[in-house]
Amino acid sequence: MYTKDQASQIRKEFWTTFGNYMSMSLSAEGLKTNWLNYKTGLKNVYFRLDADKTRASVAIEITHADPGIRELFFEQFTELKSLLNGYLNENWEWELNSQDENGKIISRIYKDLQGVNVYNKQDWPALISFFKPRIIALDEFWNDAQYSFDSLK
Questions:
Q1: In terms of pLDDT, which residue wins out, 151 or 90?
Q2: CA torsion sign, 115 to 116 to 120 to 123?
Q3: DSSP summary character for residue 63
Q4: CA 82 to CA 95: how far, in whole Å?
Q5: Distance in angstroms (rounded) separating the CA atoms of residues 47 and 58
Q6: Are 101 and 36 in contact (CB under 8 A)?
Q7: CA 106: distance to chain centroid?
Q8: Domain boundaries, the chain
């Protein structure tokens, strides 16, 4: 078991390692990108990477407080589902109403990887191999799809 400070340090070391690894990867537009804090350009729409002691996940999260607006964004992603799946080459889970770690209702489109532990450095290659192609595919998708959301801004 790790202390809170040790666990925080290990997580920070992993995300720094991943960020350094990804720093040479350019976006679909050929630009340097902060892959860990990806900017969609839409308020309340985020691409999230997460890892803990049992799993990792890549997600599109829609966090708007208004359920109707959140549903409109989710429906727009649903309209683009075949395009998204084409970039990802896999099916993801779709949840209109999910809870984040603080109990807030959000919408999520995500893929999980079970059986990995961010605190085990031997799992880091598997985590990086899970995250890298998916965040790059999300970027490629977003490069094409972002304009479909202009009317929702």
A1: 90
A2: positive
A3: -
A4: 16
A5: 7
A6: no
A7: 14
A8: 7-152
**Residue (of 103, 121, 144) closest to 10 by Cα position:** 121
Q: Which residues are registered as beta bridge partners of 110?
A: 59, 93
- The pLDDT confidence band at residue 117, using thresholds 50, 70 and 90, is very high
The whole-angstrom separation of Cα 118 and Cα 64 is 29
Q: How many residues does the chain have?
A: 153
Six-digit token string for 26? 């350019």
Sheet with strand 45-51: strands edge to edge: 45-51, 55-62, 105-114, 93-99
What residue type is 53 in one-letter code? K
Give, for 146, the enclosing helix (H) or strand (E). Answer: none
Tell me the mean pLDDT in the region 81-97. 96
Does the pLDDT of residue 1 top 80, yes or no?
A: no
Please check the confidence at residue 3 and state whether its pLDDT lies above 90: no
What CATH topology corresponds to 7-152?
Answer: Yope Regulator; Chain: A, (3.30.1460)
Largest Cα–Cα distance in the chain? 49
Give per-residue pLDDT as tens, 48-82: 999 999 999 999 999 999 999 999 999 999 999 99
pTM of the model: 0.93
